[in-house]
């Protein structure tokens, strides 16, 4: 499966190409504030929600149980605050259950913290992706040929699921010890997105923490780079630099220019003959390349 990473041309992109690395991002850095930020269904009773919240505390630790009981007392007290619209018992119960749910969400966030996310696209010709993630068509799109041989699990983003996590899923995991529920919960946490983002047709790789080492940060790419597409406004110096960097790699990389169709709004790509490209720039030495990069930055 070929998956693509849209990138502006900068030092990080050069480093990715040179070292065959990628960056597993912290979900808190995403441009979508609702990404990896689910809600929790609240149709269960407060007793059921309390039991699930209690599972995040160690019953064998007396101090933790004291903290848990004090937390419940504080949340119940705050739920009766007249600033929360009404003092009626029905409303107070709803506010209390919401507060319990918020606490469970905090614990879920801690449990999944440190997991890095590599976001990739299925298409190399998305007009919006080039605009949003590749410096308004001045950048590049890197293609990776990912398959099961590399031992990487690839997940498809879900745009058809509700934002809220079913409470019974958390309940089955925390109280029933269900590993399948934990996996489904992880998928819901990291893969559910709004329908507004369906145009990205996104696939994700997840990198979990390993001991004390966070899963967030640079790591080896899931495969070598197989293709490189240059945006409509990509500078010639960038093309020469990328070809010189990757054309001698162990796996033959294919290079393409993105072009437009006169009859439609679609993008298409045209194969670059690297020999002709390099022959057309005999005087483009390293200093000249660097001068071109500085011009791009400005």
Written account of the structure:
- With 298 residues, the chain is of the alpha+beta class.
- Helices cover 39% and strands 19% of the residues.
- The chain is built from ten helices and twelve strands.
- The strands form four sheets. Strands 1-5-10-11-12 form a five-stranded mixed beta sheet, sandwiched between helices.
- Helix 2 (46-54) runs parallel beside helix 4 and helix 6 (167-174) packs across helix 7.
- The chain is elongated, with a radius of gyration of 25 Å.
Compute the gyration radius: what is it? Answer: 25 Å
Average pLDDT metric: 88
Structural class: alpha+beta
Sheet with the most strands: spatial strand order: 1-5-10-11-12
| Low-pLDDT windows of residues | none
Biggest sheet layout: 5 strands, mixed
Q: Give the % helix.
A: 25-40%
Q: How many beta strands in the DSSP annotation?
A: 12
The helix/strand order is: EHEEHHHEHEEEHHEEEHEEHH
So how many helices?
10
Structural descriptors:
298 residues; alpha+beta; 5-stranded mixed β-sheet; 3-stranded antiparallel β-sheet; 10 helices; 39% helix
